[in-house]
Fold this sequence. Notes:
Blueprint: H1 10-63, H2 65-69, H3 73-79, H4 85-99, E1 103-108, E2 113-116, H5 134-140, E3 145-150, E4 157-167, E5 170-179, H6 182-191, E6 194-198, E7 204-207, H7 222-231, E8 244-246, E9 254-257, E10 260-268, E11 275-281, H8 283-368, H9 370-396, H10 403-428, E12 436-439, H11 440-457, E13 460-464, E14 472-475, H12 477-494, E15 507-515, E16 519-526, H13 533-536, H14 556-566, E17 570-575, E18 581-588
Parallel strand pairs: 13-15
Antiparallel strand pairs: 1-2, 1-5, 3-4, 4-5, 6-7, 6-11, 8-9, 9-10, 10-11, 12-14, 15-16, 16-18, 17-18
Helix pairs in contact: 1-8, 8-12, 9-10, 10-11, 11-12, 12-14
Amino acid sequence: MFYWLSTYSRASLSFAGIVIAGLVVWLAVNSTGNLAISQLQQTAQARLALYESTLRAAVDRYRYLPYVVARNHEIVDVVTGNGTVDIANQYLQKVNQRSGAAALYVIDRSGNTVAASNWNTPDSFVGQNYSFRPYFTEAFAGQEGFFYGIGVTTGRSGLFISHPIAKSGEIVGVVAVKLELDELERNWQDGGETVFVSDADGVIMLTSRGDWKYRTIRPLTDQERERILRNRQYSGQELLPLNMDENPSGEDGLLEIGNERFLFEVKPISGSEWNLFYLTPMDYVSERRTSVMLITLIGSGLIILIVLFLRERELKLASQRKSMEFARIQALNTRLEQEITERRKTEAELRGTQDELVQAGKLAALGQMSAAIAHEINQPIAAIRTFCASAKLMLERGKSENLGPNIEQISALTERMGSITGQLKTFSRKSTGVLEPVNIRAALDNVIQLLSSQLHNEGCVLEQSDFAGDLIVHADLVRIEQVFVNIIRNALDAMASIDDKDPKAKKRIIIDLSGTRDQATIRISDTGPGIGEETLGLLFDPFFTTKDPGQGVGLGLSVTYGIVRDFGGSIRAYNRAGGGACFEIQLPLMRGTQK
């Protein structure tokens, strides 16, 4: 049942067991930690929502006061200098006692306090100028002021909420209420949880940890410090950073402050630039991970012992199975070697078949071009006969001094015949199968020169685009030339039905060369009837042909497709917009050879 155990030594099984046990312990500890963290995060989110609601309730309880007081006619009169200050003070004192706020006061357009609820106390705001406070400038700009800081008169921190006083559409003063949130902080501290609120600059202003108050969650910039000093927001406080390291050891959602590690959640408080942080100590997660690690280690140790015991039982049977397995593997190896040999033989045969098809295609092309080639050779031969007869006549008449021009003409004609036969010899040679740098322009020139007679005889005009550079590809010249011959001859066959006497119908073959940084593109188009949509997808299939029986076997384009693919390129056929078919060949350029 456990025969595989006998194939391993005791040391290897022990090592594997230790590795697997370590992996299992790691997975168990990690999954347990993730589960514990997920549970703590859910709890933290619920606690955050609760703390936010209590904070918002404490603020919203007094947020209406400046708005209501700003609409009292006595307050409007006193701030414009038409009312009685004592009446305004009494009114503010009465309203403030009912609301329970720390202070309620009125500021004129110059920033001076003209009336306050604490007018009769040593820390009275009356006569104090608060034009430097942001809540004054915000309210005087027509907005609600919202500012937390340490009072410059009382030295006690609080939240200042302000509202503009308007008369006849003009802002004439500001009403401000100060809330001291000490009781809220005490409730947070009594709860035994770690929670704090930071302002837009990252200064901790409300916290359940007294030693964190007026510390910053990040170092302040010079501009932030200058603004805080200008607003006298936290007078007398150093505003030192809390040395907070977020994501220690690359772990998301963790926070390290000093030697303490916390799982933290943060929630922006809507309607302000404050952030509410809730921190959960990681002790609970560490305890859960330790417990799971111990349990998993004990279980893994027992499993390793059981595996070693079973291994000893299977050791005897393993030797028998090993001999049987060895014989089976030997048979498989023999079969695999035979299959590899057969595959290599098949590949060699296929390569040879393709080469033979290329050569057969060349010979077939030569056979079809034989009439044009014979005509090309017969013309020089007839001329040579004429010149020879003329030379013989000159010799008989003793005019040997006039033989020079005749001999030069005969020499030129023999060179032309040699050029024709040389092209035939070059085209008919077999491919060596060796890939080398091939100039596409030179290969096309060879093919065009070879087919020029046939093109002329069939009344076909060949047009080439102007391309100044050279396109060098890694290929076999013989097979590349065969590709061009196949396509051009197919184009001639496609235009065979065009009437040469029709002035509107002209046989034309257009060759366009282009190149990018790493690719050469050759387009060979004709002015024939084009390719039927139903046959476009079958053009490159073996033995598919649209020609009449006896005119072709359907291997030319199939061989062409295989050659182009062997050189790492692609070929496709489509119909041109103006009529006729186009074959587009793309081949990779040799790096650093394009000119």
